[in-house]
Amino acid sequence: VQLQASGGGLVQAGGSLRLSCASSGRAFSAYGMGWFRQAPGAEREFVAAINWSGSLKYYADSVKGRFTISRDNAKYMIDLQMNSLKPEDTAVYYCGGGRYGRESTRMDEYDYWGQGTQVTVSS
Question: How sure is the predictor about 77, in pLDDT bands with cuts at 50, 70 and 90?
Fold first, then answer.
């Protein structure tokens, strides 16, 4: 399974961006999917996750109410709608796919990773 993240960019604080992650394989529909981010000098951290069917979602407290994760299994894609962006959201965002199928917050439960897309929020 290959994952390709896109949609990053530069936006002012309070603005919005939509990230997408496209998968190359049919196994996508069985995978739990997630978004993580890594700011300069920081550890990679969990942002949001969605289970294989899209019925369960989980968010980091720092993004709850501002970010929305969704998936389209017919298109082998997930999205992350990011609203009310803050400068502290600046990071490289990575999408991951995990064979357990659940909305995991743990990096070690993700088997595949996209290449990352840069999000920069200016104040």
Answer: very high
